[in-house]
Write a structure and sequence with these properties.
Largest sheet: 6 strands, parallel
Radius of gyration: 21 Å
Strand content: 15-25%
Structural class: alpha/beta
Helix content: 25-40%
Number of helices: 15
CATH class of the largest domain: Alpha Beta
CATH architecture of the largest domain: 3-Layer(aba) Sandwich
CATH topology of the largest domain: Rossmann fold
Strand order of the largest sheet: 3-2-1-4-5-6
Shape: globular
Oligomer: single chain
Distance between the termini: 51 Å
Length: about 375
């Protein structure tokens, strides 16, 4: 039996008092919300209290991204306007979130001077990385139920402002290119080409920054990603997801380096006749490692270049469908073809290695301009 502790009456009253006094509160929602099955309760809470919600590292689907109270995802290299939602808050409620290095942007958001409340089923997490004004040993679902609605209507201005910042930073307008790949357009087309309940799994690497920033998850239980940042995770995770939810669309998103770490699992997918799509963003390098090399030692590259095989030919050798995209304008049609396959499909997306991350290029890193 899983024990799900309830907040004490004193803790619930203290948290209500803190929330009532706060003018710029924010919720950082983590795995504890998902594990408690409290996603719908969090939506109701945010609406009643007019509180913006940001998703902890790789917990995208903890809150519907199309909801007016959603304010973004805390990832590696989060845009400053999204980080500002945490840094400018006068009360930070970490709800089932561990406040790890990535979620907190290197323990700078929130900073040590901000008021932080943490709610977690694991008492050892309370105050582990931040001093707290209140630590609540409780399940997220029980806590949200205990808090209820505020005693008076709340001003939505702060939450509206943070939602506007999120939309300003993450909205991608259609602008297809017939001669090159813009990863933003790939992610926009991917969202448009999938049903709302599609399951997306993703690997570790700089390529994931575009997914983390621009892809919107409207429903709970639609994202699977390793918070540990393990490379090679996406394809095996997609196989597991498809076996668990055979009627749902499943797409894995990988970089070339991570994909090649577990590409042999294509054999499993072919043998089991699993209809899933594996996207591979190919820039012929370990992008994250290269980024750190260029930032610390510009132009000194060691061991981060890759000499990849023909990924389309490799997919076909396994008995899977394979296709290559060299222009984002071609991606929607290729995606439709891949989704219609009776078995696994691999789409190699040839990307520009110069665009090393969402917000910077290799040249900018070398010149120290970003």
């Amino acid at each position: 039996t899983v024990t799900r502790p309830e907040p004490s009456a004193a803790d619930a009253a203290a948290l209500r008092a803190l929330l009532s006094r706060a003018e710029r509160p924010v919720v950082i929602a983590g795995a504890g919300v998902k594990q408690a099955g409290a996603e719908a309760n969090l939506v109701a809470f945010s609406e009643a209290w007019q509180i913006p919600v940001v998703a902890a590292w790789r917990r995208h689907d903890v809150f519907p991204n199309d909801h007016p109270r959603y304010a973004g995802h805390l990832q590696m290299g989060t845009h400053p306007e999204l980080v500002a939602t945490v840094r400018e808050a006068d009360l930070v409620l970490a709800l089932g979130a561990r406040l790890n290095e990535i979620t907190t942007q290197g323990y700078t958001a929130p900073d040590r001077r901000q008021r932080v409340v943490q709610v977690d089923v694991e008492p050892g997490q309370l105050g582990k990385t931040y001093p707290l004004v209140l630590g609540v040993h409780a399940d997220a679902l029980h806590t949200l139920r205990a808090l209820g609605a505020p005693s008076a209507p709340r001003d939505p201005a702060w939450a509206d402002q943070r939602r506007a910042a999120y939309l300003r930073v993450t909205t991608v307008e259609p602008a297809e290119h017939p001669d090159r790949v813009d990863n933003r357009q790939i992610v926009r087309a991917l969202r448009a080409g999938l049903p709302d309940d599609a399951i997306v799994t993703n690997d570790a690497g700089n390529f994931a920054g575009w997914l983390h920033t621009f892809f919107r998850f409207p429903l709970a239980r639609t994202y699977v990603g390793a918070a540990s940042g393990a490379m090679g995770y996406a394809l095996p995770a997609a196989i597991g997801a498809k076996l668990a939810e055979p009627e749902r669309t499943v797409v894995s998103v990988s970089g070339d380096g991570g994909f090649l770490m577990t590409v042999q699992e294509l054999e499993t997918a072919v043998r089991l006749r699993l209809s899933l799509v594996a996207l591979v963003f190919n820039n012929n390098m370990y992008g994250s490692i290269r980024m750190h090399q260029e930032r610390a030692y510009p132009g000194r590259v060691i061991g981060s270049d890759l000499g990849n095989p023909d990924l389309v030919g490799l997919a076909r050798a396994f008995g899977a469908f394979g296709a290559r995209v060299t222009a984002d304008a071609d991606f929607p049609a290729v995606l439709r073809t891949a989704l219609a396959q009776p078995g696994p499909a691999v789409i190699e997306i040839v990307t520009d290695p110069e665009q090393i991350s969402v917000w910077s290029t290799l040249t900018q890193l070398r010149e120290g301009t970003t």
